[in-house]
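Workshop exercise sheet. Pairs work together: one partner reads the sequence aloud, the other fills in the structure field after running the prediction. Swap roles for the next sheet.
Pair: D.N. / O.F.
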Amino acid sequence: MPFVISIAQFNFIVGDVEGNARRIVDAARDAHAQGAALLLTPELALCGYAAEDLFLRPAFQAACERALDGIARATADLGDLAVVVGHPWRRTVDGVEWCHNAASVLRAGRIEHTYAKQELPNYAVFDERRYFDAGTEPCVFDVRGVRIGLLICEDAWFPGPARQAADAGAQLLATLNASPFHLGKSAEREQIMRERVAETGLPLVYAHLVGGQDEVVFEGRSFALDATGFVTVRAPGFQEALVHVTVEAAQDGGEGGLRFVPDVAPIPAPEADLWSALVLGVRDYVGKNGFPGALLGLSGGIDSALVLAIAVDALGADKVRAVMMPSPYTADISWIDARGMAERLGVRYDEIAIAPAFESFKSALAEEFAGRAEDATEENLQARIRGTLLMALSNKFGAVVLTTGNKSEMATGYCTLYGDMAGGFAVIKDVAKTAVYGLARWRNAHDPFGTGAAPIPERIITRPPSAELRPDQKDQDSLPPYDVLDAIVARYMENDEPIESIVAAGYERADVERVTRLIQINEYKRRQAPVGIRVTRRSFGKDWRYPITNRFRA
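Structure field:
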């Protein structure tokens, strides 16, 4: 001793079993070349997290079993290097078939140990009890004379498995993780792991996944805590890395008996984390699904401006296309600002007027609508014409349509089915309107990906938001002020506060009842919305499952 623990903080792809296996073997060879004695991979690294109903397919399970055996054979020549691989584990005991979220210790060409995750999360975006059976036994193995206790993600959020490993003789805890990002989650994880360290008196190494998978993002930021709970190692967030943690004997046999050589990357400001999560989410959704690029409707408003800036940071200007589709109600400044932003970022920019199509639709419906005044019907027609045009461009050229609706709009139904909701990926679906403005100002003050400073024209940020579907329309004609709206949405939707509690907190009853009613009656729209990036504790995705037909109001 000392020895090195390497962490493959990699972007493993769901279903790419062979590709993930190759990456694990390559990481093992790199780790061995740099003197590592132990390589940790994230939770379910072999198959990617989360593979959902792929876990129910026997062919998928068989592919994972073959790949795990292949990794063992391919790393047989790496001396005493122990490689810990996260994978699904199917086994039959006394005629009963079990399936576990597992991790195996591979060394010298064989599988030495296999550990089954004990705590299976079934909340928020997690659905592990649908697929897995819980384990019951600890797993402790030796690396250069140090006893390593193995845990998988949720195991470390509860005292039992860590205590069990310590009782089995562990001197260090190693936990494999695929823990989805939301704002503040990094600090929350470290605090929970401190509790495990305090309870067991053992140092802890946390190996974490990085990358985007449909609606969730994993930020990496693997870390190590010494036996006092102090962060001594932290990897950068939102990027791949082969992280090396050097383990040494504590001086004078100090607390825990082991220490880590310090190497701590800072945790950035919340806006920087949020921006990085959105960029990674877009990059991986587009790249992993094989789209050649992305396109969006650029209106001259704040939401589409923000999505354009995120897309360019994620994909590069050459893979992003912006389309301005003016209506008879589009203000001149919207044209000017949209053109100006596209020019700043260097993306392809086109203009397709919707007035001819709008008039054609109205003419076709004139007899049916005779004697009725124009209302939201005609407003929605404009949005649907735009959605049709964008989807036609997507079909013809292959680029995915990025929708531009924010969380405030998704909550209240201030969006049009088959109109501005039409598309393949909802970038800011979980970003409230107030946060949209904060992100825009942050991005104008920073250039994290070197694509150009201050991409969003100031007037887009400062002018009152409008859908521009009727003369002099403003969002606040139909909705409460966004600071009030977003606070009510957060309390009711994210925190499950009842209506009376929100009113008691000082919000006008009329506003609370109006906003919560809009949330309740617009579930049918959200069920038809494209998947979008989750960045808060609760999004309108897997962690929001409310019935469309529903009369409960509280």
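Discussion prompt: The chain has 16 helices and 21 strands. What would you look at next?
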